[in-house]
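To the structural biology subgroup,

Please find below the input and predicted structure for Adenylate cyclase, which we are adding to the shared reference set this quarter. The sequence is reproduced verbatim from the submission form. If anyone notices a discrepancy with their own records, reply to this email rather than editing the shared folder directly, so we keep one authoritative version.
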Amino acid sequence: MNTDPLHIVMQYAAARRRAAMRDRARLERWQESRIVRHVKRVREASSFYRELWQGIDAADWRRFPEIDKRAMMEHFDALNTAGIRREEAMDLALQAERTRDFTPEIGGLTIGMSSGTSGNRGLFLVSRQERLAWTGTILERVLPGSLLNRHNIAFFLRADSNLYGSVRSKRVVFEFYDLLHPLQKHVAALNAQRPTILAAPPSMLRLLAGERRAGKLNIEPAHLVAMAEVLDPLDRQVIEETFGRKIHQVYQCTEGFLGASCRHGTLHLNEDVVHIEKDYIDAERGVFVPIVTDFVRFAQPIIRYRLGDLLTERRTTCPCGSPFTAIERIEGRSDDLFVLPSRTGNGFVTLFPDFVSRAIIAASEQIEAYRAVLNSPRSLTLELEIREGADRSDTERRARQVLAELCGRVDAHTPEIGFEPYTFVPGAIKLRRVQRRFAVNERMEPV
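Predicted structure (tokenized):
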């Protein structure tokens, strides 16, 4: 007898009870007790963490050394508690990528691979119990209305997984759309499915909005969900205007289900399953790098794990009343901070991706899509998609001008700007509208 649906309903109900918490102090006490209990279990089961935390009491878990993706992959065999070897897991994940069959497991564990936005691909392990807990939680956070209602979901991602397949039930129709397939195949399938919920990376939602405006896509989803990429303000505007719906967000990565939008459209961190420490990069603006401790995942423990993302916290209270931290926006990756030569000395100046995005968007209403790639501190490539019939040379002149003004405001030399047509197509690689292609050291100097 398959008891998975019952367990998912139970996890959904538990997630709903946790989401009903309204007192921040109570939430933090609740988190603390679960984290301490969790790290005690992890210490016993993971030789990597046992050695890393030697001499530090579980109650002082904030003193544990941080780890990152490189450390997690380097010590994968000793870090996971299921006895899975990295080579074995990677072979299975790569086979799934080649065959597009993502159902095989190792010892009852789902194996997945991240898309490698940061330049190195990561593996993730999820046990059956964790998969059911994830399913119940994501259904509670994402579905509009009750689980008892009928929902028809179209879900776009680079790779399917048993994790996502768990969502299917008698009341929830769930169709996976492979981002590697041609757009016209997607349009035909969507017209046949007529989903009530459309969930996809923003770059794909933009393409689908274009197909809808062209009269080729004939669907009326009641709920839009953006995931896997940073939701750019320009993309948000076009998608919401086209479908007549507010976009909700899911903040999910290899390291866990980190956040989701509430009914008011505010992105909240899922602090009932993860604890987020904030390493402020710009305290005045509330921009921080998250350090994640997941106190639910055990097969592949995530404890004081530094992400490469930049988040900006919301300074005003969300009307929903949730004590979970509200996020104004996901800025992008810390790897994509622009590093430019200073005009006042020999050092360098940094620019947040959000500043670059907003400057380009404000340059001209003729810009329909863009990518800004900093190849070196003095060389920038700007890909622009210009509205049909617009003057490309004038739009490029305006874009160059606003970027020069932005650099001037922060006393940075303006890089040499080269223009190219916008060519990005959603697929195996995530869209990064603002990207830096060279490494820097801790002093933010190019290396």
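Summary notes: The chain has two domains: 1-331, 337-436. DSSP finds 13 helices and 21 strands in the chain.

Regards,
Lab coordination
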